[in-house]
Amino acid sequence: MAVCDAHYRFPLSTSGNSGRHSDGGVLSNSEFGKALEAGNLGMPSPTSLPGTGIEVPFVFVGDEAFSLQRNILRQCPGINLADSKAIFNYRLSHARRIIENSFGILTARWLIFRRPIIASPDNVDIFIQAAIAQHNYLRTTQSTVCCSRGFSDAEDAAGNIIEGTWRSEVAGDNGLNGVCSLGSNMHSRSAAPVRNTFETILCPLNER
Length: 208
Prior knowledge:
The protein is mainly alpha-helical. The chain has one domain. It has seven helices and eight strands; from the N terminus they run E-E-H-H-E-E-E-E-H-H-H-E-E-H-H. The strands form four sheets. The protein has a two-stranded antiparallel sheet with strand order 1-2. Strands 3-4 form a two-stranded antiparallel ribbon. Helix 1 (23-29) packs across helix 2 (31-38) and helix 3 crosses helix 7 (191-202). The chain is globular, with a radius of gyration of 18 Å.
């Protein structure tokens, strides 16, 4: 499990957990997750987004495997949602494509991830961290080497997604399997207002 930035790099990652554990469980048991929950991660102070006077905390964008938290933003659950929530989910899904592409690029360029790794758990952990370190180095110093134009997803002028070519390279040949969700959507009292605020920003009244 890892956190990525806008340049498809992994500034934070953890490995060595059992595959039967959920993403939420891995997060809760990690040093990163514990620090985030305790408010000791060193997150920047809340600030106003450009073009708005609304102050919001900095957040990580997660999928349904994670519970909604003050600093973890996930989509609104359910079907037949109100227009504002549906638009919010759609726009948040665009942000989530960054992490999907980060793992896709990693898998496409480092063939060790195309199949389950046959090695001792300790060595697997070393292999994963070494690959991530090299991936980050290349993304920082030679970004076009591991991600040339068209390799990652892009958007056209109309906002339509143009899928990157990494998808065809790893199709049916990917050792990174999805994991189960938490099984609960419980969240703290401070989490829902944060999502509601982002919903207001991402879906102005004239679009509702």
